[in-house]
Design brief:
By secondary structure, this protein is of the alpha/beta class. The longest helix is centred in the C-terminal third of the chain and has 18 residues. Helix content is about 30%, strand content about 25%. Strand 12 and strand 13 form a beta hairpin. The chain folds into two domains: about 140 residues, NAD(P)-binding Rossmann-like Domain (Rossmann fold, 3-Layer(aba) Sandwich), CATH 3.40.50.720; about 160 residues, Dihydrodipicolinate Reductase, domain 2.
Length: about 325
């Protein structure tokens, strides 16, 4: 266990060395008092090459061996979705702090298992929803407290990119790997609605499916007492990916790509005002710094994105998948 203010350099391990892990590792090397202590892949060659590229101290061809490394403080889990539960639980059992890629679990049952394990072992656990820590997102949430566009009435947000050239074996379409847009990218607009409005009173969702059987694109309507959220995710085309928030006295637009944007704008009767908030590196630095700070303070959660937040978010995604029939055989 960590003692408050005793750690100066946070030593990270990475499990699962795909594209997102590459970006994450690049940003780890941009954060002060942070070192990549070890990386693990089931391919020794891949682990070695990754370690060389990102200046990791050690590399492993076994996830288990990385978790046994006592010099590692915190593990970033970047495996495909269906492996999050297994390796998060094993990391927690090994007394490692854990930052697990979104979605934290495939469903609420899995997330509760992780929460209970982390609380039992008294170790840090957080879902890697990097957008929550993006400077633009932080600024938007702060700005909205002053009610700049009046009573909020509508959110429009999407996350779409073209992937129809990928085979049905690709992770985004492979049902055995929990493929489909909802958990992969649909989580982002649902997260935005949740962080702005909380839990809705009513959910309506509609999906269309890929030829291999996985969910291809989904429309979601979240109904609240005084406002609504219109959300969409798709692997069939690329959208503008702006997030638009409408109030009775104006609009707030988070510029493209909204989930990693460097700016937003207010449109009111007084005109348009642009606010720039550049992110560090690729954008993972802020999330990394949040974890590092929490560990240095001896905390087991980060207040801006708690385990309860992750549970409530996955419950919304559970209901969406239930309504459209995007359920996996292994659940």
């Amino acid at each position: 266990m960590y003692q408050k203010n005793t750690i100066k350099t946070i030593r990270w391990g990475i499990i699962g060395l795909g594209a997102i892990a590459n970006d994450f590792a690049s940003d780890l090397n941009r954060v002060s008092n942070t070192v990549i202590q070890g990386v693990a892949s089931r391919s020794s060659t891949k682990a070695k090459d990754f370690a060389k590229k990102h200046k990791a101290q050690k590399f492993y061809d076994s996830y288990v061996d990385l978790l046994a490394d006592e010099s590692i403080d915190v593990v970033y889990i970047a495996t495909p979705h269906h492996l999050h539960l297994e390796w998060t639980l094993k990391a927690i059992k090994a007394k490692k702090a854990v930052l697990c890629e979104k979605p934290l679990g495939l469903n609420a049952l899995q997330v509760r298992q992780m929460m209970n394990a982390a609380k039992s072992e008294k170790v840090f656990l957080m879902e890697a929803l990097w957008t929550r820590f993006n400077p633009t997102m932080e600024a938007v949430l702060k700005q909205l407290k002053s009610n700049p566009i009046g009573k909020l009435r509508l959110l429009k947000a999407d996350f779409c990119f073209h992937a129809l050239d990928q085979s049905t074996e690709h992770r985004i379409f492979n049902l055995e790997l929990a493929g489909g847009s909802i958990l992969d990218i649909g989580i982002y607009p649902v997260f935005l609605a949740y962080i702005l409005f909380g839990k809705p009173q009513e959910i309506k969702a509609y999906s269309q499916f890929h030829q291999g059987g996985s969910e291809l694109q989904t429309s979601v309507l979240l109904n609240y007492q005084d406002c609504q959220a219109q959300l969409f995710s798709s692997f069939a085309f690329r959208s503008e990916m702006k997030a638009q928030l409408y109030g009775e006295k104006g609009q707030l637009c988070i510029d493209a790509d909204w989930f990693q944007s460097d700016s937003y704008r207010l449109l009111t009767q007084e005109g348009e005002q642009v606010y720039n908030h550049p992110k560090k590196g690729i954008g993972f630095c802020h999330e990394i710094e949040a974890v590092n700070t929490a560990l240095r303070k001896g905390k087991t959660e980060e207040a801006r994105w708690t385990l309860q937040n992750s549970l409530e978010l996955i419950e919304l995604l559970d209901e969406i998948r239930k309504q459209v029939g995007a359920i996996y055989d292994f659940e």
